[in-house]
Amino acid sequence: MNGTSALNLFDKPNFQDATLIVGWAEDASNLSIRTTNYLIQDLGCTEIGEIMPQEFFPLAGVSVENDVAQFPRSKLYASSRHNLVVFQSNIPRMEWYRFLNILLDVAQECSVREIYTLGAMVSASTHTMPRQLITVMNSGALKAELEPFNVMADTDYETPPGQKPTMSSYLLWLARQRGIDAVNLWVPVPYYLVPVDDPRACKRLVYFFNSKYDLGIDFIPLDSEIAEQNRRIAGLFDRSPDIEALVRRLETGEGIDGAESDKLAREILEYLKKQD
Amino acid sequence: MGIRYIKEPDLIDPVMLASWPGIGNVGLIAVEAMRKSLRSEQLAYIEPWDYFYPNKAIIRKGELIELGFPASDFYFQRTDKRDIIFFTGEEQPTEGSRLYAEGSKAFSMANIVLDVAQKFGCKRIYTSGAAVAPLHHTARSRVWAVPNSETMLEELKKYDNTILMSGVEGREGQGTITGLNGLILGVARRRGMEAVCLMGEIPVYLQGFPFPYPKGSKSVLEVLIAALGIWMDMDSVNQLAEESEKELTGLYEKLPQEVKDQLDRLKQVTVAAPESGETITEEDKRKILDDIDRFFKSQGGDEQH
Predict the structure, then answer these.
(1) CATH assignment of the domain containing B203
(2) Which of A142, A170, B152, B174 stands 20 to 30 A from B225 (CA)?
């Protein structure tokens, strides 16, 4: 099999020790795509290519989400000024090894030195709490490089029986075979924000890249989104003190039961949708 | 994609026993039991990358230490009577969300397994799986044998407790064997190699549950032992079969009486274990099976095989 026939790379800017940021679609709060979109727009990245879908997705029709027909996409963007390549993709449904190796071929062609994948973890935290940044790396040597950025880099984990590792873990492992440093960045997202945006989680990721690479990113739009979401949820609290009480209990670590948890998620979602 | 050899022994006219997971893991349990009983050594493995998604990640102190993949391993053992190559696959290679292998990956894996068989001079391949049957779990499972050549039919008829498809009630010699346990028969036929699939019966009402069914595996092993002329210690399989029957009987007792009454009628249908000594007509048998089928449909049961 030819490792690059599924790749359509129509531009290859000059890079030196570039960084590749990978965002997979369909995670909680659509965090990876929202974050990479923010970076693409703020940094003026342009599209440089795509991995064609026919070998990696069944294409037996289209799925419809929120009334709109969807189609899998795997697009590459870049900013040579920032030495940055961004990859946005649906998670391939088959031929994962080939798909990830094509992406790594691109990384090597673009002289990528570090790869970051983005992801959201569903958590029992609240929208008012600071977002943590959890890292998993493919080399212990990266720990010292990441430590100044206030990340949690001491996770212990084994895939539970019946579950599968993430695509990001798979990419880390393959990157290590090629001697490329790679890091998964995970942000815990409050479970009741999973169906909607979590701009605070998005800001945590953007802030990391801005700090590490001195990108000069404008945070004003993100800060406005965070303020707007807080304002909306505060409006719900005014109308429903029992919902506020549930959030306060989560903040103090007191915990809530299953029925309360369902109620909290349902009411916040309904209220935010009405406000849209 | 490829195969990695760990040893390259000289084997004399070996046969290959191959199995992948399937309903009740009937075939896999049988092949694994014989492989372990004969203390076989690893021969080779198939590189997993092109066939499988990883099945395990191990992270320690924030570092990805290991990524595991489903294993597809070959083993071998020389016995006084017969040299044997074993192949066991931890998963069937699927494309998309299908349960059993099909398409190009299945064809590719079947060919790799047969490449190994031919490299060591195998003339015959045995695969093994489950046959969903109107059987009660207290009865002995029969073994349905499907060869890929007419020349093996007479031989297979001689084995105790074994039937050909034409001997299965209502089948008239027709049927399908899904996944690699079946596909490899066809791929072997293309190469002019003999292959047989031995399917241990599993009760129809267990097919949708994730329980292993070692009673079916035990029946398969009995046929394999006869066919290969070898001896193996059956203690572990007997124990597994007994434990499984006890557990299933425990669950069975918890079923509503109405369901039990329907399933108990399978004891009359089961050809291999006429415990009551009573005989029933073909018409009675058909009526019982139709009744049970209607009952499970009314309960929202699964019709798939």
Answers:
(1) 3.40.50.10900
(2) B174
Tokens of A206: 């953007």
Tell me: pLDDT of B212 over 70: yes
Higher pLDDT, B57 or B270: B57
Which chain A residues touch B if contact means CB-CB below 8 Å? Answer: 58, 93-94, 96-98, 135-140, 143, 152-159, 164-166, 169-170, 172-173, 176
End-to-end CA distance of chain B: 32
Region B190-215 average pLDDT: 90
List C-alpha distances in Å: A164 to A59, A118, A153, B52. Answer: 23, 18, 22, 11
Question: What is the spatial distance between Cα A55 and Cα B278, in angstroms, rounded to a whole number?
Answer: 59
Give the mean pLDDT of A6-11.
92
ipTM above 0.95, yes or no: no
Residues from B contacting A (CB-CB < 8 Å) are: 49-50, 53-64, 67, 95-97
Q: Of the candidates B49, B54, B95, which has its C-beta nearest A94's C-beta? A: B95
Query: Is residue B288 one of the residues assigned to a domain?
Result: no
Q: Which domain holds residue B195?
A: 3-234
Spatial separation of the C-alpha atoms in residues A205 and A198, rounded to whole Å: 11
Answer yes or no: is B158 within a domain.
yes
pLDDT of residue A8: 94
CA distance B130 to B144: 9
The amino acid at residue B84 is I
Cβ-based contacts of A135 with chain B (< 8 Å)? 62
Report the alpha-carbon distance of residue A19 to residue B257 in Å, rounded. 66
User: What local confidence, expressed as pLDDT, does residue A189 receive?
Assistant: 96
Whether residue B292 is contained in a domain is answered as no
The tally of domains found in chain B comes to 1
Supply the pLDDT for residue B261: 79
Sheet holding B194-203, edge to edge: B3-5, B41-46, B72-78, B83-89, B15-19, B124-133, B194-203, B143-147, B162-164
Q: Is a pLDDT exceeding 60 seen at residue A196?
A: yes
Is B242 part of any domain? no
